[in-house]
Structures are given as C-alpha cells and as structure tokens.
Amino acid sequence: xxxxxxxxxxxxxxxxxxxxxxYWKDIHGKYLGCNENCAKxxxxxxxxxxxxxxxxxxxxxxxxxxxxxxxxxxxxxxxKTILEEVGFDIHGxxxxxxxxxxPLHDEQDRVCGILGISINITERKLxxxxxxxxxxxxx
Length: 139
Known about the structure:
This protein is of the alpha+beta class. Helix content is 43%, strand content 29%.
C-alpha cells in the first residue's frame, strides 16, 4: 500500500510541475484539477482552487462559449483533437496556445470528461509571421 501511495504522490508531482497548462474536466465542464502553471495563468491561489469551477467562472462568456463548444465536440466525437486557442498568458496579455484535448473514459469506457494540455506558442507564431514577411520582401 505504501508503494502505491508513493506512486500516486510521484504522479501528482509530475502533473503539478508539468510545463504548459494541464487540466481535466468532467462531462459537464467542471474542472476536476489542473497543474500549477494553469492555476497561475488563471490567477488562482493554488491548483486546488480550480476544482468545481467552469470556464464561465474563469473567463469571459465569449471565450468560455468557444471552449465549451470545442470540449463538447471532442467528447461527442470521442477522439483526440489538436487546435489553436486564444487565451491569456501569465501577465494577462493575449496569447495563442497549441492545445491537445482527449476525452476521458470511466471504467465502462464511457466518456466522462476531457483532458487538455496547452502550450503557449505566441512567440513562435510571431516568429513565423516575421519570417513570412522577410520571404515576401526577398521575392
């Protein structure tokens, strides 16, 4: 039993310290957890503070509507999706995220929620835009 608890604690530490934003929600869009980086971006005091909240508690209705629609589509299709999403960085500035979302399943293999991992790609997108401008001017 002690070995099992050590493994759980180790996995909790990996999730907490993972780069980017890691979060998981139930089928109704209520957060069940997140990593430390995600909590910081959402201006939460700690990662436990997200539990039970929805996107509507954490962002504008327009942004929450878009996220909820994407989540519902992913769960309905029951397949992994990679998409770009607009959000905010740790300083509250607009940011572009590359997000991978997968449906979560219960013991009977029914969809019971969603797991998301988002990486801020704003700098990369700005660099790509600069490169395209340079290439255009060289022609």
